[in-house]
Amino acid sequence: MKITGKTNIKNRFDIECKDIRTGEVQKFQAHNIVLDQMWSRLVNFQTYFTNIHFGTGTGTLNPARTSLFAHLGTKAATNVSRTRALPTSSWMRQIVLMPEEYVGKDITEVGIAYGSTTSYLVTHAFLEDSEGNPISITKTDTMVVTIYATIFFELGELEDMYGGQFRWVMPASNNELINYLTGVASYPAQRFMVTQAGGFATDGYHEGCAPIRHGQSADITPTNWIKDSAAKKATTPKMRLGINDGNDAIRGIGLGSTNDKGTFRGQLPIAGVFAGHEIEGEAVGIGDGEAVGFNPAWPYANISAVYVDGVLVDPADYTLGPTKKGTNIFLFRQPVVLAGSITTGSGRDLTNGQEGYDVINMSEDCVLGIDAGAVAPSALSAKLRIAFTGGTDKIALRGTNNPDFSGSVFLAEVQGSYMQEADFESPGYRYYRVETSQGRPQLREVYLLTADNQITFTAPPAEGAIITADYTVDYIPKDENHVLDLQVSIQYGEGA
To answer: How far, in Å, CA of 150 to CA of 229, rounded?
Structure first.
């Protein structure tokens, strides 16, 4: 699986000339081109904005250049401001030429550089007046010249890439590529992370890289990336999740250094990259002359055909449910605190089968809201399963189709220590409330499990009959029989 993220770069100079005797201020601009040397710095994740050079030359701007036409001087730039946001991040720095410096010189050109050496230029521009005409600034002994350089990174809106299925890690302060580009920090080692969580929550999309991961690749240091300066592209090597890594349904993929910090995160399926996985002829059971219910190995299967002893079964002879028995339809939905308070975990994703992970301590009057996602639209036999501690603690589950969790209907209640279960009938609610009115339970896991089989025959298959099925799933069904290779590219370009 290979994915590309794009970012465009442009640079603007604002020059302010102030006469310290008269107070008169003149302002000019300079619009630049990005030089080839910039792409070499970026694809290698190296520093690129250390100095601002200025000169007295003229000529035809050329991206192959590495220095000004006539270098006059340079100064180390100091920070003015940073903006880390989508669709555009920016970084402004400045230098100041004091009255006694460079007196009598005509400044015509500027550029940013990754050091003081004249050949370290990465952008190049000529000074212009308000009409866009080339000008020069004659430096006098009463003039303070402040040269501001702002570099802009256009990463696009959050949902621009792959129809919104692949996105930059948010919040922007946790995006390690944006932090590198705006000079906040060097770009750290990254790793691919996979999660059973698709990433969608009540407010749209999860923060960070992969809040709950069940597999990850080895580290990818900046030196490990494949650099192509001419193509303005940096690409990770193909990183493999082996037969023992990341096994389970993979709905989300991230690239980052930690759960909450990184570069990209994705939600499967992604059009043009991964539409789904097709499974053919999977054995789903053996008839015993009585059983009518059977299940595929993977949940949320889109079953296209069912066979008995290799013979295609007429769809009229069986019914299909939305998911297989025992499937958790909460799918790692993030809890929203509606009342009371929680500590330790503070709203992190609830877990699925990972005992003792991200424990949430609920207050005695705590109410959590959970968006269950696209659950079954029709009546659903379900099982509430909650893991918590405390012999007198009580937790109730209520369901509703109102996004503000109002008007909820009581569904089930459990009380006791550790894993408790309760069966109930649910019409496939989209939103749920988890409430406690007794004790201060430590909430470890919340399951809303289906209790029906996905394939139900009208008449039981004969004893010894082999039942198989063809189906697709819209995630990656990773198991010990498969490996997964992942790769991502960052494509730079020059903005308009």
So the answer is: 23
